[in-house]
Amino acid sequence: MDSGVLIDFISIPVTVGFTSATSVIIAVSQLKGLLGLKFESSTFLDCLLKVYQNIGNYRANDTILGVTSIIILLMLRKVKDIKLFGPNGKPTNKQRTIMKGLWLLSISRNALIVVACSIISYWCYRPNSEPYVTLIGKVRSGLPPLKFPPFGTEINGTSVSFINMCWDLGSSIILVPVIAVLGNVAIAKAFASGNSVDATQELYCLGVCNLLGSFVSSMPVTGSFSRSAVNHASGVRTPMGGLYTGILIILSLSLLTPYFYFIPKAALAAVIISAVIFMIEYEIVKPMWKSSRKDLIPTFATFVLCLGIGVEFGILVGVGINIMLLLIPSARPFLHIEMKKLRTGLDYLLVTPENSLYFPAVDFMRAKTDRAAVKIGQSKLPVVVDCKHILDADFTAAKGIAGLIMDFKRRKQPLCFYNPRKSVLAVLQGVCVDEIVHCFTYDELEQTLNDINGSGNPAELKDIVHTTSQQSHETPLLNRRQH
Q1: What are the STAS domain coordinates in residue numbering (predicted)?
Q2: What is the DSSP letter of 255?
Q3: Which residues pair with 384 in a beta bridge?
């Protein structure tokens, strides 16, 4: 079985809600660094409240540096779109070189801003005075030691075994990896630009990364939306970018950590905010409204819940709502009900379910078919169930059909199943034994109805239901047509 099949339930509406909510959360979380505020927060709402409460303590230098950095980053973002043309309408070699330089300047804007702001802060730094802007501070240098992962630990002098750690985690030992995988695939789909994402490969990748990471005391590995957004904004297009990033991180931890001290937090906040604000997909709401409004439900639910209770549970609820929308047609299938006429002139009521028969739908179909048949009154008009769209059925559905047959038998009203699949018929006959009347061709249907109907055509048939929908709406209409 494909191990990534469950991940395929993360639809585009859920991904849009997750992406937009995560972008808003990250942008708001960076306001602290942008304004030079100092506080601890845990959730989006808590961070928003803390910013409001501490806004009076903002540092002007941090704010000016951060806002200026954002403006420059947004301007450099557009530099790559500048086109130069020569007298003949085509760029000259010099113009091509200039455009290439502008493109390089645009995609390296994040690094340039961080380096430029770090130089400014270093130039303004005075050892015995408070920095003009809030700095990153000391970063521990060196690489973590390579060793086998420990299967036990010690807390407050008490030895804790691996089994005890698993026991203390409880359901989180399953929930955390599931949420991590869902978040990782959602991030992958957000940056896939419409291309397909192999969820199985994502699972393998996460498994290998976490397995190898345990040998260097790594935290649990999963996708990072903020870093992915910065990579995306910097022009990274392939996984090869990860190789360059890894090499740069190793070199930086080994050689450059003393210089990280002078990186302003406002500059990093500006880089992240400038990257994530373009991931808020508000423009997709209009086409979704025009094409499929029901998809807005998981989109807004995921967005609001990610902001309110956290991205982990928000995306789980979004996937759950999406699955419910998939199951509703199975529970409330469309039933097309209309009057038909045989070549011999005999009228009958044709009921066509537009979906397979499973246990959530059987009571709905039985009630609707019974209601339409009863409206005929004393006419005893034959009812034909067209099974062309019924691809499968289960035991509960067969029991419901058996009850439907008994209802018609008590009223002495003919009921026939037309063109059922052999697999479906086998399920129905397994419960209904030999009581089910069925036929596979129109000639058989005509012969069967003429044989079992002895009362002729009904006199008045004005109250027949033409169509019943999933929402149980009924439109009284008599539609007589030749088969």
Answers
A1: 349-440
A2: I
A3: 350, 416
With 0-12 CB in 10 A as exposed, 13-18 as middle and 19+ as buried, what is 185?
Answer: buried
Residue 219 DSSP SS3: coil
* DSSP state, residue 355: S
* Best CA proximity match to 319, nearest among 201, 419, 454, 179: 179
CA distance 23 to 186: 13
Which among 333, 369, 357 is positioned nearest to 425, based on CA atoms?
A: 357
Q: Which domain holds residue 217?
A: 139-257
436, two tokens = 């089910």
Rg of the chain (C-alpha set): 33
Q: Is the dihedral of CA 438, 441, 444, 450 positive or negative?
A: positive
Give yes or no: residues 132 and 206 share one domain: no
Task: Look up residue 140 and give its DSSP letter.
Answer: -
Query: Which residue has tokens 């730094």?
Result: 125
> Measured between alpha carbons, how far is 114 from 293 in angstroms, rounded to an integer?
43
The amino acid at residue 89 is G
Q: What share of the chain is helix, strand, coil (3-state, %, to 5)?
A: 60, 10, 30
* pLDDT recorded at residue 433: 59
Residue 250 exposed, middle or buried by CB count within 10 Å (0-12, 13-18, 19+)? exposed
Is residue 464 over pLDDT 50? no
Helices (H), 125-239: 162-169, 172-190, 199-213, 225-233
Q: Report pLDDT digits (tens) over 161-217.
A: 888 888 887 777 777 777 777 777 777 777 776 677 777 787 888 888 888 988 988
Higher pLDDT, 264 or 364: 264
CB 19 within 8 A of CB 51: no
**Is residue 411's pLDDT more than 80?**
no
> Does the pLDDT of residue 249 top 60, yes or no?
yes
Nearest to 383 by CA among 374, 393, 394, 392: 374
The answer to whether residue 321 sits within a structural domain is yes
How far apart are alpha carbons 327 and 333 in whole angstroms?
A: 10
CA angle 38, 44, 49 (to 5 degrees): 55
Domain total in the chain = 3
pLDDT higher than 70, residue 470: no
Domain boundary (233, 257, 281) is at 257
